[in-house]
Write a structure and sequence with these properties.
seven-stranded mixed β-sheet, 13 strands, Aspartate Aminotransferase, domain 1, 15 helices, 12% strand, four-stranded antiparallel β-sheet, binds pyridoxal-5'-phosphate, alpha/beta, Aspartate Aminotransferase, domain 2
Length: 419
């Protein structure tokens, strides 16, 4: 908490208003649908709000591009859209040079494709097969399930890193488990529960020292935390686009494969759209050169429309400014929790150092399940993560400081109200 501010001041509407007045990105909030309502939205890290511009984009697509161009649209734009828009995600949010990012499928399916491709290509220096995949016990369920399934299919061993649920995986833990047998390390850059931000550059280097590859899950980073995949030397990454990229429910995920690996990796879902010459309709599968080989079937073009508006907004704001606001929002939430909720037994289950925290904060209390249900009835929308975690997701461009203040005051009111 800033020293000069007393606990009383911090919770005043005038204090939140001053923070909003000083916020260089405050005006961005008006570009989102629903900005005028009193609803408090703490779930932009689960499903981002739509931008107003998106309604026009969707209508124009139906009328002009789909309705007007019909099947010609494939030649004109849609066929390459996974790659051209992938490049845009890479440029605006991932620190990735063109030709290394594609959109398609869900994060779950892309995890399957990239994990399978990586473990099948893994060999140790002696030429024998590397047989271990490393991940942490508190990684997102889909990441754990996919890896366990592949381990069964391919006769591999899963090496688990046991983590503190209020923090995340650290460098020493990674150094301890990787070795000659490690094929791949799969970690989340921002932990979905605690919001812990991993030191991706250092961890990537440690994995490389052991001769293994790293795959970063960026679901809770992309659009909230600056990512520098090329500069960090990352091998593989995936992430979703319906969270901080506001692509809408079920918008396709992205995959990044560093250029140096593309032509030696074979993904397991060999479809015609990843073929070197799809319209040859030839007898045998011949993977395309470059990123196209990671595409399987017809891309979900309609699902790729909305994220273009958010990418344009982030590009205008700049990722550094987005991160700066994100840090200030989560710090304010932590300060308010200390000032207004600690006396009710609420603890902060996220890193307190903003440099080690992504875009959300988790507050812990045994009653949070029922508190969340009551908050939803009051139009305050956080989400609940068992056991006892109230997750406050603060999408930087669509959330105001006043919203944070009102939302946390509502948590206090609900905790104080009789059961
Ligand atoms: C949201 C999220 C997913 C989601 O995967 P889907 O296939 O889109 O359902 C995966 N991993 C992490 C870390 C997530 O936060």
């Amino acid at each position: 908490m800033p020293n000069e501010v007393t606990r009383g001041e911090l919770t005043q509407p005038s204090y939140a208003a001053a923070l909003d007045a000083r916020d260089p990105l405050a005006a961005c909030r008006d570009e989102f649908v629903g900005a005028e309502s009193r609803l408090v939205y703490f779930d932009g890290n689960s499903l981002g709000r739509p931008l107003r511009a998106t309604a026009g984009r969707l209508a124009a697509f139906v009328e002009e591009e789909w309705g007007g161009r019909l099947i010609r649209g494939w030649d004109e734009r849609w066929y390459d859209l996974p790659l051209t828009l992938g490049d845009e995600v890479g440029r605006v949010c991932l620190g990735a040079a063109p030709g290394q990012t594609t959109l398609g499928d869900s994060t779950t399916v892309l995890l399957y494709k990239l994990v399978r491709a990586a473990v099948d290509a893994a060999e140790s220096t002696s030429g024998s097969r590397r047989t271990e995949v490393v991940l942490d016990t508190d990684n997102f369920p889909t990441d754990r399930y996919v890896v366990e399934g592949i381990a069964e299919e391919r006769g591999l061993t899963v090496r688990w890193i046991d983590v503190d649920r209020t923090a995340g995986v650290n460098l020493d833990q990674v150094r301890e488990v990787v070795g000659e047998q490690t094929a791949l390390v799969l970690l989340s850059h921002v932990a979905y529960r605690s919001g812990h931000l991993a030191d991706a550059r250092a961890v990537t280097a440690a994995v490389h020292d052991a001769g293994a590859l790293v795959l970063w899950d960026l679901c809770h980073s992309v659009g909230a935390v600056p990512v520098e995949l090329d500069a960090w030397g990352v091998d593989l990454a995936v992430g979703c686009t319906y969270k901080y990229l506001n692509g809408g429910p079920g918008s396709p995920a992205f995959a990044y494969v560093a250029q140096r690996h593309q032509d030696r990796l074979m993904q397991p879902i060999r479809g015609w759209m990843g073929h070197a010459d799809p319209f040859l309709m030839g007898p045998a599968y011949q993977p395309a050169a470059g990123m196209r080989r990671f595409i399987s079937g017809t891309p979900a073009v309609v699902g790729m429309l909305a994220m273009q508006d958010m990418l344009a907004l982030i590009d205008r704001a700049g990722m550094a400014a987005v991160r700066d606001k994100s840090r200030r929002l989560t710090s304010y939430a932590v300060d308010l929790a200390d000032a207004r909720l600690a006396d009710l037994g609420v603890t902060v289950a996220s890193p307190r150092d903003p440099a080690q925290r992504g875009g959300h904060v988790t507050l812990q209390h045994e009653r949070m399940r029922e508190v969340t249900a009551e908050l939803w009835r009051r139009d305050v929308i956080p989400d609940y993560r068992d056991p006892g975690g109230l997750r406050i997701g603060l999408s930087p461009l669509s959330t105001s400081f006043e919203e944070v203040r009102r939302g946390l005051e509502a948590v206090r009111e609900v905790l104080l109200s009789p059961r």
